[in-house]
Design a protein that fits this description.
Blueprint (H helix, E strand, L loop, with lengths): L4 E4 L3 H12 L4 E4 L4 H6 L5 E2 L1 H9 L4 H6 L1 E3 L1 E6 L2 E6 H5 L3 E3 L2 H14 L4 E2 L3 E6 L7 E6 L2 E6 L2 E4 L7 H4 L6 E16 L9 E3 L6 E7 L2 E8 L10 H11 L2 H6 L5 E15 L2 E2 L2 E3 L5 E2 L7 H22 L3 H28 L7 H16 L1 H12 L4
Parallel strand pairs: 1-2, 1-12, 2-8, 5-14, 12-19
Antiparallel strand pairs: 3-7, 4-7, 5-6, 9-10, 10-11, 13-16, 13-17, 14-15, 15-16, 17-20, 18-19
Helix pairs in contact: 1-6, 1-10, 10-11, 12-13
Bound molecules: 8-demethyl-8-dimethylamino-flavin-adenine-dinucleotide and P-hydroxybenzoic acid (PHB).
Amino acid sequence: MRTQVAIIGGGPAGLLLAQLLHNHGIETVVLERRTRDYVLSRIRAGVLETGFTDLMREAGVGERLDREGIVHDGAKLAYQGGTFRIDFERLTGRHVTVYGQTEVTRDLYQARDAASLPTLHGCSGVKPRDIDTGSPFITFLHGGKMNRLDCDFIAGCDGFHGPSRQAIPEKARTEHEKTYPFGWLGILSETPPVDDELIYANSPRGFALCSMRNPNLSRYYVQCALSDSPEDWPDDKVWDELKRRVPEEVAERLVTGPSIEKSIAPLRSFVCAPMRWGRLFLCGDAAHIVPPTGAKGLNTAASDVHYLYRALVRHYHDRDDDGLERYSDTALARIWKTQRFSWWMTNLLHRFPDQSGFDLHVQQAELAVLSENEAAQTALAESYVGLPY
Ligand code: RFL
Ligand code: PHB
């Protein structure tokens, strides 16, 4: 088997890259470890930057997103019993769109099917080989036999636990990591969202987030201990805790109901450099992870896709490798700014077990400055709606 760009991972990064390349006449094969149903059942991101929605349109898959995505011109921050609003539209002239990662992935799979493009599910033992030569290839088990996929380039879009990053020799790779002493418990419930905008709450009992997917589907998160498991959080306890962490007038409006999904995610900041080794290019969670507080994970995967797809188009159409040479530096420059923002939002909004009285006062003062100061709000809004590519 041979293709031009072999893509490991059929998550949003891999599928979006494949669709954009296809539109420019570049062949791809996507190798995915899981079944399609499994990929589509993962409840994750919900907030898309305009750069992301523009890329979906450019890929020709923006129609349902434009119809069903909910435009958010602002978001709310809550602390000390009150709420203030960051007006994205007024401060930056831009907005974000609420549209689930599941829906993004579904749209991309549909487009891939419609164009009869090859996606192999259930691949195991996927291994990039000879990446530092002019003829890389991938070996993998599929359909009960070993296969070999030859290609010009490999895009490692296989998430944090995938094999691509490990294919970069250990001595050539630097990994920066920061872990946080808590996780997020998330629930999805078929209830109307408590507000028409997202509410990020800092409370003495820990962080809480009120989000949504559509007018009858709410997504809520509460900061929890890393040692907790979903069984420790029956629905009543989640709703009760959420109500205690948001301002009273929000709690009074909260409509509760049975959860249809419940999971716990640890928080992590992680960057791997370089993001390219020979003919292997890392994209998305394969190269970096952010804590979800800034809603940046999926959006950062999209900015990598933007740089890589343009670089590959220049390679094939203009015989110009400048974009490929600069991919790692260009992508990492934006990633570090996004890391800074996600780390800062996480520090601003969570309670830390080792937080001193001084730390807490500084945190609360920072929220007070944000609530009063338009320049501070603009800085937050610019990062939240998405830094330019
Ligand atoms: P993914 O989605 O992990 O996809 C990688 C794919 O690779 C496959 N794979 C393999 N395939 C073949 N062989 C192997 N050996 C393989 N190993 C893995 C996997 O099965 C999978 O299909 O990475 P990608 O495409 O880079 O996309 C990244 C995003 O999924 C991620 O950054 C976001 O979900 C993060 N995130 C959020 N991002 C946002 O931009 N906005 C948000 O509001 C937001 N909220 C969140 C989030 C992540 C969360 N969790 C669970 C970590 C909320 C949460 C709770
Ligand atoms: C979500 O809706 O899942 C979501 C929204 C905003 C975040 C993180 C997650 O910052």
